[in-house]
Amino acid sequence: MAAGSVSFRHFILGLLKQQPMSGYDIKRLLKGLGWLVDGPSFGNIYSTLHALLKDDLVTVKVIPNQNKPPRKVYSITEAGRQELHEWVNQPVTNNLSLKAFVMRLILAGSFSQARLVAHLQQRCEQVTAHHVALKQTVEALDEGADLQRLALDHALALATAELAWLDSTLKRLSRQPLG
Fold it and tell me: Which CATH number belongs to the domain containing residue 86 in this structure?
């Protein structure tokens, strides 16, 4: 995994830093965000939780559940916090996918304000370059390329909206004291 990209392992650690969760809690959260992050299978969630447990990065508390299987709630350990901290402070790769960007945003509570601002600025540069390239492609299209234009217009609208969001978010963060 490239430095600064989003590994599912670190994503789970970041979620557990926010609050202890069961595998089902994680799956339900990701299902709600599915159109943004393509929620993983239960098997992937549980295999990741078991690997984190094996590496002493999380602990598990088994909670009896009347008439149901016991509930296993996972919590991050100090070693898990340290690994998450090291990952968060790695430089973010260029051309981070939208999925990876959104996954990192979900973990923004694990970032310092300076790291979050740098992450947003890098995304702004990436989307700006993408926006320029899209505009050039649209301008170079033949008159009869209406179906291609639909897709490119959609991509331009998304890039324009993301740039507006990035701009307003960076302005809002610049007015807040560094944390």
Answer: 1.10.10.10
